[in-house]
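Example for tutorial group B:
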């Protein structure tokens, strides 16, 4: 009389177990959420890099209005996302939709090391493919940086 094979041997022959199915579902769900949400955080990272760039330019350029305007233009040019509006038509909008009025640009030249504070918030809109659902997340950037002119010692 032959004994029935144990579940360990059945899995070794290529059959699925509930653990394999759970792992595949978890990987699939994680991949789906990564596909949807990773671009949102990439745009936030790029926006922080743009803000840091213009904060560094503020060390030598004292025209805060011009720097803030150029920063906003560059932020809006980082990329676009295409989302449906209320009527269902797809519209392209900037991924980082910021206006000059939304930006706090405060230079404190009287502080012991001169400081610059830049802050703003924007709404990241996300569409879940196949689920017919949209989500919004408020992303905030709030950076303060020393803008004193570095002293590299005597020139040679």
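The residue assignment follows.
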């Amino acid at each position: 009389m032959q004994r029935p094979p144990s579940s360990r041997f059945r899995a070794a022959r290529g059959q699925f177990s509930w653990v394999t199915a759970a792992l595949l579902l978890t990987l699939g769900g994680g991949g789906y959420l990564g596909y949807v949400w990773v671009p949102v955080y990439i745009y936030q990272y790029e926006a922080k890099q743009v803000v840091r760039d213009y904060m560094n330019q503020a060390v030598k350029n004292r025209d805060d209005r011009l720097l803030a305007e150029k920063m906003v233009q560059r932020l809006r040019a980082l990329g676009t996302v295409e989302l449906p509006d209320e009527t269902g038509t797809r519209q392209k909008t900037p991924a980082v939709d910021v206006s000059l009025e939304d930006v706090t640009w405060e230079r404190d030249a009287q502080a012991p090391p001169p400081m610059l504070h830049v802050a703003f918030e924007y709404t990241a809109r996300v569409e879940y493919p196949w689920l017919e659902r949209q989500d919004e997340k408020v992303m905030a950037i709030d950076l303060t940086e020393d803008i004193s002119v570095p002293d590299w010692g005597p020139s040679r």
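Residues 18-57 form the longest helix (40 residues). Compare this with the pattern of hydrophobic and polar residues in the output above.
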